[in-house]
């Protein structure tokens, strides 16, 4: 009956069935059953503290809510007509279990402050899971970078070979993106950690609920200071969605690189069979479908509006990314073979700079050297000293030291060019034990 609804007393006629269906959000917000129960139990204790519930009534409510939560966990909770959302469903079931004390639970509380509280509680716990996934991926990358530090490869700009780099330096460029994502998440959690419960529908709670104590019982750091703002606030969801979009873009970027590097044209890496698929027509094909999905889903997170959908998609591609990166094989020989001496043209310019030549002039001379090698169809290191001197008298016998890829890589000593092992060692020592415990590394 209509008067059984939380708001039904004012209405004489039943809700239109189409509106009833459209208005029901239980299919989505049932995922917050635990948070709704936790918030209700804490609120029942707060009501007992101000004598609006007896100790026995508060105990009955909490015990009943434990049964409600157990039914949700075991998948035996029966949804009935009229259960508009997780809040009404839980309260209806609580009344079935314990009777009239359940009708006292909602005093001073509204679904307006309930739903914001539930969403914040859900995000607080689940964003920690996403952060664990990020940290797990960072550790996988860091371990690979440490173990495969000897691998050299071309670095690319505009998909053109640019300068020789270490595979480890390339890998850690992605680790830095994910570390920044983890740091940003900490800032978002500060905003989420402000409790709105006790704001009522709009004007506040008239029963002098101890909101600070209530916040502490639910592990919030602070309480909202304006009830009207509190119940209308969804900024924290927008922040989460933007953050998820950033992580998705970073995952998509990594996947795009790996798709290219795993192709026959490159063969720098081989994706493990467990993260690859084949072709229904061409038997020779090894398709990096794990990376295709990461790239597609990651990029598609941009502009998502649904909190649960965004979380699910991001969690799924984080797990697949971690598995793909952990199991791939680096083909060191192919990486090394892709290095070519024209990639050392910048080093030629730097060589001349060290001889006192202004950089713009040195850059022009290096370009002339490259053009001459192309004209003669040889590598730039095959040009004789006499041929080089035709472009600049500053060339001497020590130019031979430039034709070394490892020397080229090791010349970059400034912070940011060479990976600073101290930072990652410190990060590893602070986090590794905790991450292993939680991520089963």
UniProtKB/TrEMBL annotation:
Residues 9-303 form the Fumarate lyase N-terminal domain. Belongs to the lyase 1 family. Argininosuccinate lyase subfamily. Residues 343-410 form the Argininosuccinate lyase C-terminal domain. This is Argininosuccinate lyase. It comes from the Eukaryota. Signal peptide: none annotated. InterPro entries: Arg_succ_lyase_C, Argininosuccinate_lyase, Fumarase/histidase_N, Fumarate_lyase_CS, Fumarate_lyase_fam, Fumarate_lyase_N, L-Aspartase-like. It comes from Molorchus minor.
């Amino acid at each position: 009956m209509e008067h059984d609804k939380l708001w039904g007393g004012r209405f004489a006629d039943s809700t239109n069935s189409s509106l009833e269906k459209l208005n029901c959000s239980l299919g989505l917000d049932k995922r917050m059953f635990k948070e709704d129960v936790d918030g209700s139990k804490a609120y029942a204790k707060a009501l007992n503290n101000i004598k609006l519930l007896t100790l026995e009534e508060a105990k009955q409510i909490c015990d009943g809510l434990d049964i409600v939560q157990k039914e949700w966990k075991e998948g035996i909770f029966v949804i009935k007509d009229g259960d508009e959302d997780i809040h009404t469903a839980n309260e209806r079931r609580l009344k079935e279990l314990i009777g009239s004390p359940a009708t006292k639970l909602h005093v001073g509380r509204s679904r307006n402050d309930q739903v914001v509280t539930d969403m914040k509680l859900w995000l607080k716990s689940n964003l920690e899971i996403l952060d664990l996934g990020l940290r797990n991926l960072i550790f996988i990358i860091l371990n690979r970078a440490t173990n495969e530090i000897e691998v050299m490869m071309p670095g690319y700009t505009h998909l053109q070979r640019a300068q020789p780099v270490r595979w480890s330096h390339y890998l850690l460029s992605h680790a830095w993106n994910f570390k920044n994502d983890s740091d940003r998440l900490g800032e978002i959690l500060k905003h989420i950690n402000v409790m709105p419960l006790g704001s009522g529908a709009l004007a506040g709670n008239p029963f002098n609920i101890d909101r600070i104590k209530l916040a502490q019982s639910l592990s919030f750091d602070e309480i909202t200071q304006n009830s009207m703002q509190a119940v209308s606030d969804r900024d924290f969801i927008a922040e989460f969605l933007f953050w998820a979009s950033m992580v998705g873009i970073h995952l998509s970027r990594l996947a795009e690189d790996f798709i290219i590097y795993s192709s026959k044209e490159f063969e720098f890496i081989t994706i493990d069979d467990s993260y690859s698929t084949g072709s229904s027509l061409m038997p020779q094909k090894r398709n990096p479908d794990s990376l295709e999905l990461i790239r597609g889903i990651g990029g598609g997170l941009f502009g998502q509006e649904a909190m649960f959908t965004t979380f699910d998609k991001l969690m799924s591609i984080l797990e697949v990314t971690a598995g793909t990166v952990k199991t791939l094989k680096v083909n060191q020989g192919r990486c090394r073979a892709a290095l070519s001496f024209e990639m050392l043209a910048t080093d030629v310019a730097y060589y001349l700079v060290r001889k006192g030549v202004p950089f713009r002039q040195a850059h022009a001379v290096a370009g002339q050297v490259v053009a001459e090698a192309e004209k003669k169809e040889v590598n730039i290191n095959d040009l004789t000293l006499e041929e080089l001197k035709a472009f600049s008298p500053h060339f001497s016998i020590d130019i031979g030291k430039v034709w070394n890829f490892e020397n080229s890589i090791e010349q970059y000593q400034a912070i940011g060019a060479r990976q600073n092992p101290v930072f990652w060692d410190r990060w590893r020592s602070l986090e590794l034990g905790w991450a292993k415990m939680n991520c089963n590394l």
